[in-house]
């Protein structure tokens, strides 16, 4: 079992993204979830998970309870250690300094050497209290009260290797999506090495760029030549081969999202940020026709999709042949809340992430733990 240390302020969304790298994700407390197994390489590519920790013990969010739990827990490690405590979002009120001192003493008593600068192993102590998030598509997100300390060895930490901020790229347009969000949406659409992700309304290319950075092949289209050319510039800057690893393949074309120049079932996932209300006329399409047509085309070429928009498009998504696995509302600022639909083609509905996503591998993936 592993504890997942979530990031951001929307735990249900973070847990859902984490489920693309883990099995049986269950929200336990603000900022903390658990999983029975995780792909460590994929976990390092997540946007809204800080780290995965190999579970040692779980108890109440109090220093004495954590000390007692650590004393009683089996410890299958050797070498030097350090303790790092975190009061998640300041919800538990514990003193992290006291936690680190007391838990460090327990480890010394059990024969470990403490090395605060370069330890062989780091024991993470996560404290959280308060209500869990509520969401009907996320296990454990029931709004119930939590009071929890989760102790675990750090097993994988997020690389946070996003593309630069949109304003720092060769091509920029106002309204570009933050890299951390683009990464999360790409992950939810199935981006991973050996897969291909399509963005049929790519704009400056932020979504497929993040897909490429996690190792997926990227296909991008936009109706405006200016955007297609700009996305190419950004891809050339950040998806170029380097001395350590080849870049994934990428392709950019000017094209209509409602009439994609692709055969059926060409890609593994689709993710797109639909035009917002202020842009309600796009070329020859009204916004509703554009989104409905893009959803229908997405269902023709891929088994899964993520739609981001300024409104709820669940009705047109179902009409286009999609099952809505999850829907989220994510506040960006006072005048914009993004509606996010996680979609699975009706003919393919009924499952979670592919088992291949959660398998140990020589690249540093973690074994399943029970």
Automatic annotation (TrEMBL):
Q: Which Pfam families does the protein's record reference?
A: UPF0020
The ranges of region (Disordered) come to 348-370
Which key words are in the record?
A: Cytoplasm, Methyltransferase, S-adenosyl-L-methionine, Transferase, tRNA processing
Q: Name one GO biological process term.
A: tRNA methylation
Q: What is the superkingdom listed in this entry's lineage?
A: Archaea
The record, for Gene3D superfamilies, names: 3.30.2130.30, Vaccinia Virus protein VP39
Q: One MF term from GO for this chain?
A: tRNA (guanine) methyltransferase activity
SUPFAM superfamilies given for it?
S-adenosyl-L-methionine-dependent methyltransferases, THUMP domain-like
Task: From the Swiss-Prot or TrEMBL record, state where the protein is found.
Answer: Cytoplasm
GO (cellular component) term, any one: cytoplasm
Which InterPro entries does the UniProt record give?
RlmKL-like_Mtase, RlmKL-like_Mtase_CS, SAM-dependent_MTases_sf
- Residues forming the Ribosomal RNA large subunit methyltransferase K/L-like methyltransferase domain are 168-308
Q: What is this protein called?
A: N2-methylguanosine tRNA methyltransferase
């Amino acid at each position: 079992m592993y504890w997942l240390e979530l990031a951001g302020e929307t735990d249900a969304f973070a847990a859902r993204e984490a489920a693309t790298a883990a099995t049986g994700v269950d929200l336990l407390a603000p900022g903390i979830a658990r999983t029975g197994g995780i792909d460590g390489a994929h976990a390092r590519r997540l946007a809204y998970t800080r780290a995965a920790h190999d579970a040692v013990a779980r108890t109440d969010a109090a220093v004495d309870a954590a000390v007692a739990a650590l004393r009683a827990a089996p410890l299958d490690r050797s070498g030097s250690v350090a303790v790092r405590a975190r009061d998640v979002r300041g919800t538990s009120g514990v003193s992290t300094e006291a936690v680190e001192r007391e838990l460090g003493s327990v480890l010394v008593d059990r024969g470990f050497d403490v090395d605060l600068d370069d330890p062989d192993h780091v024991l993470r102590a996560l404290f959280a209290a308060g209500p869990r998030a509520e969401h009907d598509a996320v296990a454990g997100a029931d709004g119930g009260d939590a009071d929890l300390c989760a102790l675990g060895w750090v097993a994988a930490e997020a690389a946070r290797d996003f593309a630069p901020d949109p304003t720092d790229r060769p091509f920029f347009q106002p309204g570009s999506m933050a890299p951390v969000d683009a990464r999360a949406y790409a992950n939810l659409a199935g981006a991973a090495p050996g897969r291909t992700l399509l963005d049929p309304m790519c704009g400056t290319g932020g979504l497929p760029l993040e897909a490429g950075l996690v190792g997926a092949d990227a296909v991008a289209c936009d109706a405006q030549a200016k955007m297609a050319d700009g996305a190419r510039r950004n891809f050339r800057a950040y998806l170029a081969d380097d001395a350590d690893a080849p870049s994934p393949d990428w392709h950019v074309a000017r094209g209509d999202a409602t009439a994609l120049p692709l055969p059926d079932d060409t890609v593994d996932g689709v993710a797109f940020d639909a035009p917002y209300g202020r842009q309600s006329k796009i070329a020859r399409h009204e916004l509703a026709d554009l989104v409905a047509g893009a959803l229908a085309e997405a269902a023709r070429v891929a088994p899964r999709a993520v739609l981001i928009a300024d409104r709820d498009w669940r009705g047109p998504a179902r009409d286009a042949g999609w099952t809505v696995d999850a829907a989220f509302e994510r506040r960006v600022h006072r005048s914009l809340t993004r509606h996010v639909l996680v979609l699975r083609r009706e003919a393919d509905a009924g499952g979670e992430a592919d088992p291949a996503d959660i398998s140990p591998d020589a690249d540093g993936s973690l074994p399943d733990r029970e």
